[in-house]
Amino acid sequence: MKNFLKFFLTILVFCLKASSISAAEQTEKLLNPGWGFKGFFGKFDRGSLQRGYQVYTEVCAACHSIKYLSYRNLSETGGPEFTEDQVKAIASQFEVTDGPNDDGDMFTRPARPADNFVSPYANEKAAIAANGGAYPPDMSVLVKARKGGADYIYSLLLGYEDPPSGLSLDDGVYYNKYMAGNKIKMSNPLSDGLVEYGDGTSATSEQMAKDVTTFLAWAAEPHLEARHKIGFRAIIYLIILTILVYFSMKKIWSRVESKV
Amino acid sequence: MSDKKVKRRDFIFTTSYALGAVGVGAAVWPLIDQMNPDASVKALASTEVDVSSVEPGQSITVLWRGKPVFIKRRTQEEIDKAREVDIKNLKHPEKDEDRAKNPEWLVMLGVCTHLGCVPLGDKGEYGGWFCPCHGSHYDTSGRIRKGPAPTNMEIPKYEFVNTNTIKIG
Amino acid sequence: MSDHEYIPKSKLGKWFNDRLPILTLANHLTEYPTPKNLNYWWTFGAILTFCLVTQIITGLILAMHYVAHADLAFSSVEHIMRNVNYGWLIRYVHANGASMFFLAVYIHIFRALYYGSYKSPREIIWILGMMIYILMMMAAFMGYVLPWGQMSFWGATVITNLFSAIPFFGESITMWLWGGYAVDNPTLTRFFSLHYLIPFLILGLVVLHIWALHVPGNNNPIGIDIKKPSNDTVSFHPYIVIKDLFALLIFLIVFAFFVFYSPNILGHADNYIEANPMVTPAHIVPEWYLLPFYAILRSVPDKLLGVIAMFAALFILVILPWLDTSKIRSAIFRPLYKQFYWFLVADVLILGYMGAMPAEGIYLLVARVATAYYFLHFLIILPVLGNKEKTSEVPLSITEPVLGGSASASITKNHLDKI
To answer: Which fold has domain C32-284?
Structure first.
């Protein structure tokens, strides 16, 4: 029994270690400002999500789509939790292509909460053409699509610096400490005071990076809080049931005169 | 075996079974609930329609919850015709006032109550709709007057959020 | 099998049982004499059955919402994660369930290797088990393609390309698998169909696997044949049922930790990028449970020989009962074999680790050594050990030595303590 548990734990530790080992070259250690949504009792900070939404809309949305997110998600539990009226107002600021109408024409109309976030470009090729040959990735699951997750996105946003001496960059290419290969075609999107936060928080680059990363982490995992909550209850329940079944097992096996 | 031991043993088993049953129930519920309408379907549970361009006598058809909804701006003639009818003789007695609170606007599900076809507007012997599938005739209030359909066309929940917009559902 | 004929108690039961002996079967399963010295490594059969049922149930539910088309697959998975009620839960259970399934199957296989459960007269059980394992790998591979992420697409490309190594027919076979000139929509739709089918083939093989087991009965930690029923056995219900349930609950706690707190840790971030035939990921890796075979494949510089080596590594396991010549089953009484067993475990773990690394430099060297050792173990070490090894004395029964009577009582008691 002890051996069983030892073995199990060894395998578990091995799995966890093996999965966190990178197969790549040496990479910079990522920045970590502390994320409230990580850990067993992790939750999203509503204020941070709302500020992050503002950063996304005012800074990122010009190039980056977030097509799997719907405006109605903004008022659902576990997210920024804007009110339904706020969400209606937010949605109506954007134009959505709909149709065809009875004349056979496509037309535009204001977005409704049920619509998905409007993309800045009609399609991927248009996005690439408008951005010097590089595609600004869709951000719906970007936090899950990068090794290092939230730490990586946060670090990247703050990782712009002058290239080391001797390294020359083409036009439209910038140096970033955390990007694989160090070259990135996105210029530094953040600078202090770029956005004016509605709640008065000072919009430093670090603050905006943290808020928009939190927002993107929620966008990638909108059910994170429910998952943590249900998980906690499920595991406590399983532990209690395991203990009960353990004693049931002992009772039953006590009937066997000599267990070898 | 002493009575106390038996009682303790049964208690352990009973508690295990009970707790186990709770767990199984909790685990099974998501498997069933996943077939209920999902969030994207429920988001389309109500729809807002801009009716500012609908002239009197004109009708538009919108899709709501997967079904057609007729929104007709009735002329005075059509309203009068609807209100004159003696409902005692109707197969499904309903007053027009109850079907169209704002008499100028008739909002109803464009689905024949017989077997579900979509009736054609401005047709039939009663100035309303005619269902070509099996010959049901509806009047200017959407009530069944002749043919196999058992009830009047259904009036969904709707309200005017402002003079130009109807929210259905 | 020496069942007395089972007579159901109720009249209705008797009527039904005469026409379809399902109550006889239930009685057989309930009374089935099981060695009473089984340790927790024997609980994984039941755990595996639970895993199979879980994958089938969550899988068929996902299939209600998933769209198997290259243009819609990725977004249908996001739809499940975001919109379907508890969709995120069902998807994470299915994805992590696959990993748990393989964790359990590896423990189950390594238990068999340690205690000689594959030896006569259980060869067919072993071969059926190997067939189940192969089908599991095929199902898992195809399942991973379905979300149509970068790893889905490129993993499918790499593995299907292997078939082009076959002389003469390779190219045609590969295009036949693809349904086109590259992995694309036709590949996806047929993988979906087969991914749905295979678990039911596995289910059938599992029935045969258990049936074949019930002929000789379970092996046990000291590897001796026992009389059934006897003082050495207990009835399957309630003794083994409750023990399996306890082990299953521990397993579920581990499972729950993955599903609720680290649902993506065993996966690869690149699979959250939509498949792009124009861009290859920096490192193409399969899921962890396929890594040892991936390492063997990449160890051999020649394409065809690499494929042959990978399949040979699998085939060698299938014929294991005939490679291991020892008459003694359990490693408890085989001190030399026990050592080599743990070397093999280390070797497989090393191979797995190497499979995740780029196939160059020190990683490639270690992978080659580990591959060579793997074949050495099965082709040279095992046959030689069977003939040359001096084994310890094996007890005559499970209970007898402890209760006294056997000449080897003291020796066997020591060994039994070690279990």
So the answer is: Cytochrome Bc1 Complex; Chain C (1.20.810)
